[in-house]
Amino acid sequence: MFISKKIIFSLLLFSSASAGAQQVVFSSKAPKGGEPLSFTYDPAGGIFANEKELTCRARSFVNLKRSIAMVTLKKEGNVFKGTFHPADSTDLVSLIFSAKAPTELSPEGYYTLFYNKGVVKPNAYLAEAQLLTVLSRLGSLKADPAKAVKSYEKAFAAKPDLKTAFTGNYLTTMYGLDKVKGKASIDSKIKSYQLQKNPSEVDLMTLMSLHLLLKDKAAADALRPVIIAKFPKGNLAYNAARKPLYDIKDLEERGKKFDALVKDFGLDPKKEKDALSINSLYGPLAHMFASKGNMEMFNLYSAKIINRIAAASTANNVAWGLAEKNQNIDFAELLSKKSLSILEEAKQGEVPDDYASKEEYIQSIESAYRGNSDTYALILHHKGNDKEAAIYQAKVGSDTNSDGNARYVMYLELAGDQEKAFKVADAFLKVGKGNEEMRTRFQKLYEKQNLTMPFNTYMLDVDKAAASTTRTAWVKKMMNVPAPAFNLRNLKGEYVSLASLKGKVVIVDYWATWCGPCIASFPGMQKAQAKYAADKDVVFLFVNSLQREENRDKLVRDFLREKKYDFNVLFDTKNKVDPEVFDVITAYNVPGIPTKFIIGPDGNIKFKAVGFSGTADAVVEELDQMISLAKSN
To answer: Mind listing the pLDDT tens digit for each residue in 57-116?
Structure first.
């Protein structure tokens, strides 16, 4: 199956007054909100050195909220120039330069703090602190907790009111740097909270998080009922009310309870945090109704999913599962058509805040549409309509994998277009985008052409061209950026650090038991791991992340036992400030799972692969290319 994915290759560069050889120069050392801010970017010496065109997005922090906008770049000589128009209340702006070059992780970059009356804005320091810690994933930059602590302190000194909401973040960052000094500060803060006569929910939640940070679970647990009773409509009360609803077996009853929960707690879809909560409720519910063949209820709850691309993906995932097995095809067709119509309708809707422009949003929708067309084409084939199946498979284009290409050739041949099937197969095989099924079909098509050259002789040149093209393509995908460090517990209770594996090629695969594409990719990952079992210079690590169930450990063990996989699974850690965030997957800026990183012997990331390649053999072939190049570079 083609797995649609949004991959934006970007390089995030930040500047500061103390930086050495800067590649970005801002027109003002003390920019102000509401005033145009120009800049020049010199890519010399970097991965964009030979690029003729670049795109730029400006990520702004405005009153502690984030927004993003496109900036037009003009190349003059060897440098790119652009002008950004910040809002009046802008606190900080970072620049993201993008091209076709396959890299997106950068430990450094360029940002600029904004001023008010010649003084750095307090919120600017706060935005900087967050960007260098819990929000480092936004810029794919290396976290700098030491600098973040100083930024928090500057923010609090300039605006003491900020302490109320961000003391927890500050103390957590400090504790991570220095356990002794950090604990003393935390103990002092805990005492001050305990003396308050009328603490806010934020105060009590911070107090609870500080107890957990010091591993005093009993004290944290004792606070829970107090907070819920005092703030019955607060965040903790919401989480407590939500949990038991997942145990309701009757899905329609569960849906009604979800509706009541949204109403009772006044969740607003226009608010980012509330929108995420709403999606987390209705997304799985819509998927379950689709899995049970209830189109009416699927339509009801998929309409409540705010992220329309996610809603379309929910329909498509179930449709593909049925199409792949050639089961309940009429219902699969309904779901697949629905997924395509949702995407068509989404083009007319509002652009979500996490997209820089309408154009970027449309591109994401079109990418999803191509992937979902792959599913619809297979369904049409099962229904005997290969002519239309070929039309939809053609919409998928180069985004699909070799299996999708093979199906396209098959649809063309079955539809009676032998000549086009021959030309399409020939083109795919010459660039290494075919498989054995296509090769077999192509041989029959070739022999019908009555050519004088024997097929096997012809294929020698085809295979040579494919090998060269494939390797060249992988070389272009290579990156060379430092891999964020980690030290995670595995199933045996041992800690595995990336630093201890320097000198080896390390494959880091992010996954979760609920992730369908992850599970689909595992037969290939098992096959690849077995292939390299005798190679002591290649290590496979499977990082379980985004797994929020309380019985996470048992779920993972049961899954591996049932599937009989012998993976070395590491457990990603939950962020101490925001338990919804996982530390390592965040540091690696993973857009979705499954995602694999191939780290070279020098400790730098060489490749990043998102999604499932379609078959076990395709997974192995993909890893062979990446491992081989990682070893030699």
So the answer is: 888 998 878 888 889 999 999 899 999 999 899 999 988 887 754 434 444 568 899 999
- Contacts within 8 Å (CB) and 24+ apart, 202-208: 202/164, 202/165, 203/164, 204/230, 204/231, 205/168, 205/235, 205/236, 206/167, 206/168
CB 131 within 8 A of CB 12: no
CA distance 166 to 177: 17
Nearest CA to 372 among 395, 355, 352?
Answer: 395
8 Å CB contact between 55 and 73: yes
pLDDT digits (tens, 9 = 90+) for 394-429: 999 866 778 899 999 999 999 999 999 999 999 999
Q: Answer whether residue 135 shows pLDDT above 80.
A: no
- Give the orientation angle of helix 163-177 with respect to helix 201-213, to 10 degrees: 10
Quick: pLDDT tens for 572-606: 998 876 677 888 998 887 867 889 999 999 999 99
Tell me which residue of 62, 182, 199 sits closest to 127, measured CA to CA: 62
Name the pairing type of β-strands 604-610 and 481-482.
antiparallel
The CA dihedral of 174, 175, 180, 186, to the nearest 10 degrees, is: 90
Please check whether residue 626 is in contact with residue 609, taking contact to mean a CB–CB distance below 8 angstroms. Answer: yes
Which tens digits make up the pLDDT trace of 35-51?
A: 999 999 988 876 677 78
Q: How many CB atoms lie within 10 A of CB 600?
A: 25
DSSP notation for 188-214:
HHHHHHHT-SS--HHHHHHHHHHHHHT
Are the C-beta atoms of 54 and 137 separated by less than 8 Å?
A: no
The answer to whether 397 touches 370, Cβ cutoff 8 Å, is: yes
* pTM score over 0.70: no
DSSP string, 298-334: HHHHHTT-S-HHHHHHHHHHHHHHHHHHT-SHHHHHH
pLDDT of residue 103: 39
Contact at 8 Å (CB) between 303 and 384? no
φ/ψ of residue 522, rounded to 5: -65, -35
pLDDT computed for residue 280 by the predictor: 83
Amino acid 131: pLDDT: 84
Q: What is 91-145 written as a DSSP string? A: EEEEEEEE-SSS----S---EEE-EETTEE-HHHHHHHHHHTTTTGGGTT----H
- The Cα-based distances of 156 to 20, 125, 210 in angstroms read 28, 9, 19
Cα–Cα distance measured from residue 611 to residue 594, given in angstroms and rounded to the nearest whole number: 5
Q: For residue 523, is the peptide bond before it cis, meaning its omega torsion is within 30 degrees of 0?
A: no
Which residues are registered as beta bridge partners of 60? 67, 93
pLDDT-derived band at 356 (thresholds 50, 70, 90) equals low
Polymer length of the chain: 633
- 400, 372 in Cβ contact below 8 A? no
